[in-house]
Amino acid sequence: MGKSKKIMFIMRKAPYGTIYPFEGLESVLIMGAYEQDISLLFIDDGVYTLRKGMDTSALGIKNFSPTFKALEGYDINKLYIDKDSLDIRGMTLDDLVVQPELVDEEMIPELIEEQDVVIPF
Amino acid sequence: MGKSKKIMFIMRKAPYGTIYPFEGLESVLIMGAYEQDISLLFIDDGVYTLRKGMDTSALGIKNFSPTFKALEGYDINKLYIDKDSLDIRGMTLDDLVVQPELVDEEMIPELIEEQDVVIPF
Amino acid sequence: MRNMLHIINRSPFYTKTVDTVLKFSKKGSPILLIEDAAAAAAAGSALCEAKLGNIMRDHPIYALKEDLEARGVHKVIEGIKVIDYAGFVELVEKYNTCSWA
Amino acid sequence: MRNMLHIINRSPFYTKTVDTVLKFSKKGSPILLIEDAAAAAAAGSALCEAKLGNIMRDHPIYALKEDLEARGVHKVIEGIKVIDYAGFVELVEKYNTCSWA
Amino acid sequence: MKFAVLVQEGPYQHQSSDSAYHFVKAALEKGHEITGVFFYNDGVLNANKLIDPQQDDRNVQKRWSDLAEKGVELVVCIAAAKRRGINDDILAPGFKISGLGQLTEMAIESDRLVTFGA
Amino acid sequence: MKFAVLVQEGPYQHQSSDSAYHFVKAALEKGHEITGVFFYNDGVLNANKLIDPQQDDRNVQKRWSDLAEKGVELVVCIAAAKRRGINDDILAPGFKISGLGQLTEMAIESDRLVTFGA
């Protein structure tokens, strides 16, 4: 494999209504083992995936919220979140199960476009 | 079967990007045989499904545009289209393969809510 | 004349479906937020509170409890009625339905 | 620094994805409209012409010929470049891509 | 009352099938009659008996089959099913493949038709 | 150049799989190498050999199998496939079931990864 690539996962969908964020997270965990330069960016409804206090027991759907806390153990430390997406949803970092770096509309286009690979979920 | 029900199909999705309008139309044709009070309402991107001059040959996808012209033969004559949805897309009845009745935001809520059954596509 | 229950399942931040429902539903017709639409019922967003508050002048709004819980929403915007699946069934007893995605 | 190609496949009348792309893409980065997004490239809509015209000040816009044809769009808004799949491949030769739905 | 249900999305990718299941279950608990669940569009994919999810997740197909055991009729549209590779070889217990006429009859015979999906 | 392709939607319900196919075909015609097509999310449903559309429509699965005959590697994610009832019993010719590691390797080894879907 040799060279390390910059690979970003963009999480912009809400949890549970569709499977994208869950299966997206599963692919992040696998890629974490390949010693690439992995990052996650949470924008739009993707910020909902990190909200504390999810209880999926009544739906019987697997709650994947704890997996986000496990990302560090996989050496995936570059987590970014769009401040504006949080703001308009009335949320702050205190509402989240992990603490991504707050980024804004100035920084995000640079972050995205410097990647070798961007995978949207 | 006895009683006749008011059944409306709402077409609000664009053609080909998703299969909803095509499979929606297939279900309209079948229901047409059951002597119910069937109507079709085209709103939002559903108005795109009626545009003249579709050529799907390069994509190899079945062009279902001609089927709309066959609706009359199935005794399905109640076709309505939202004038505003046409307007904002820069379209008029002249752009369409069939000529539904133009309806507006005053009439549509009545049309929808007087139905016994509404099936969205 | 009877009103109809309008069921929305997509996030209003993602699709423009809410605008369509407002445009094409009768005054007084109830709106039920399920699946991803439920997340928008969370208290705390000035934008959602303004928008849903505005809608509630003409339409009662319901949000599905099981979907709220799954999304970690424990407090909803004032005026939104939280119902569970049994309550969903009761609404369908009263109204014909129209689903929007 | 190189720009990235942003590919959109949903109708801007249905989702708010176009706004997201504008917010999160660099000035000068090209945008490609495919599938249901292509329909919005049709000439004649004052709304689309205003919106896409505005975007074109910062981003070149391309629309996929095969998808335009399928949707009966024979004339696009001035300034939008119509390309076929071969042209799509050429854009991908030049740019990394980011897809949006 | 008599309820019919229309499912337009496949399992897992969208929540629609889950929502339809919970709705049917709640309706039965309230003593309503389910005249049938009709699977159309990607909804037909719910009838695939090879579905085998992770152990800590729900089995969407099996849930439906369990409802069939309680007498709920599960009807899969044949045209939509052929297009998506669902046939009798892999049809899960309790489902039957039929035509769109069945949806029509459900719509006519029921007090309500509730759609999940699209 | 070396292109990899990621397909996230199933056949027919969404156009994404069609678009991916036409893109791959055009890339091959221009002399590019396709390092692989990875099917994830509902994309795994493209690999169902039981797909049997109407005669006047395209067969999305068969199109992919035809590309495999020309040497294009078609990889189906095993976790996503199990969840949706795709296994070796119904796997169409030219597809192989493997893990997400394959997607990673495609992403690393290719000059581009183009995603269709979601």
Question: What does it look like?
Answer:
Chain A is built from four helices and five strands. Chain A is of the alpha/beta class and 121 residues long. Chain A has a single domain, classed as Hypothetical Protein Ychn, Chain: A. Chain A is globular, with a radius of gyration of 14 Å. The mean pLDDT of chain A is 95. Chain C is built from four helices and five strands, in the order βαβαβαβαβ. Helices cover 35% and strands 20% of the residues of chain C. Chain C is of the alpha/beta class. Chain C has one domain: Hypothetical Protein Ychn, Chain: A. Chain C is globular. Chain E has one domain: DsrEFH-like (Hypothetical Protein Ychn, Chain: A). In chain E, 34% of the residues lie in helices and 22% in strands. The chains are: A alpha/beta (121), C alpha/beta (101), E alpha/beta (118). Chains in contact: A-C, A-D, A-E, A-F, B-C, B-D, B-E, B-F, C-D, C-E, D-F, E-F. Chains A and C meet through loops of A and helix 2 and helix 3 of C.
CATH architecture of chain E, by name, is: 3-Layer(aba) Sandwich
Q: What is the CATH first-level class name of chain E?
A: Alpha Beta
User: Overall 3D geometry of chain C?
Assistant: globular
Uncertain residue segments of chain C: none
Helix/strand class of chain C: alpha/beta
Average residue pLDDT of chain E: 98
Beta-strand residue percentage of chain E: 15-25%
The tally of domains of chain E stands at: 1
